[in-house]
Design a protein that fits this description.
Blueprint lengths: L9 H16 L5 E4 L1 H8 L6 H15 L7 E4 L5 H12 L2 H5 L4 H7 L8 H4 L1 H10 L5 E3 L5 H18 L8 E3 L4 H4 L23 H9 L20 H9 L3 H9 L5 H25 L2 H30 L4
Helix pairs in contact: 3-14, 4-8, 4-15, 8-9, 11-14, 12-13, 12-14
The structure holds adenosine monophosphate.
Amino acid sequence: MRPTQPRLHIGNYEGALRNWVDLQNKGFEMFCMVADWHALTTMFEETDQIGQNSIGVAKDFIAAGIDPDKSAIFVQSHVKEHAELHLLFSMVTPLGWLERTPTYKEKRDAMGGAEREPYGLLGYPVLQTSDILLYRPYGVPVGRDQAPHLEIGNDIGQRFNRLYGQDIFPTYKYLIPEDETRAKLPGLDMRKMSKSYDNCIYLADTADETAKKIKSAYTTPSKIKKDDPGIPESCAVCQYLKVYSPNWQTQWEEDRQGLRGCMMNKTECTEAINEYFRPMRELRASLDDNDVREILRQGAEKASAVASQTMIEVRKAMGLLA
Ligand code: AMP
């Protein structure tokens, strides 16, 4: 997760973090990273908040159920092996693979074209591959939008194995939520939930902030009167009901038949979201910055222990002088 802001939105939670907690609780060894170097690819001109944001994101991990005694919670820039593997992978990655990354051209154009585009933006998937393969994982739990980047990662790992005749890197799986609504959670305006669209509900929002946001959320445009039939598939409020309300099937059916109005949907949706996130919000508010710093320090130690072992094998495979 990139610390481009001090808190995560519930799309980050549904697409990725919820799975992280499930996997941890099933006994998987988890490496939960705050990707501060990745945040720099887009926010290199305004970095004053990035440190504090990293603490905020780590708080969200813990509030959601990541247990620092079971999982490593760490900041990318604290584990220098990420930079070293990135450099070595950058030598074996064909430029064409990177230029073909979906989203890359979009991001480059948004930054003012090739003259202003930082070198790091093109290399983003190489750094992400290093973040993943340093830990030689079984899988990477992410939202749907990350799938194209993860494909390049497996290609880079397998190319490395072939070039140096070693079987160092596994082919990892992408663990994307089966439910499409969670894999790509819509925002309040029905576009993908994203900070850049200003359409987010944050895990750390208060109950009142959540209520206010849901009030303004997008609903079926043709449903004007209470008894007009709704189309739950195209209504943001109904999408959230599906994720957070145990009675969503009845609520959807009633909406479809015009047996309930948007106000009722919004009230019940707000209650369901607030109910779901209340314990996380309370835990988050009780976390102390200095305790979180210590958790991140210990997490970096745990991550380094694994990452440094991988690097010994990588350097050896490439024939670098030990
Ligand atoms: P980001 O740092 O914003 O690129 O995203 C961090 C994680 O959240 C990635 O695994 C994304 O796939 C996931 N994610 C971001 N936005 C959404 C969304 N609207 N729905 C589901 N997952 C998302």
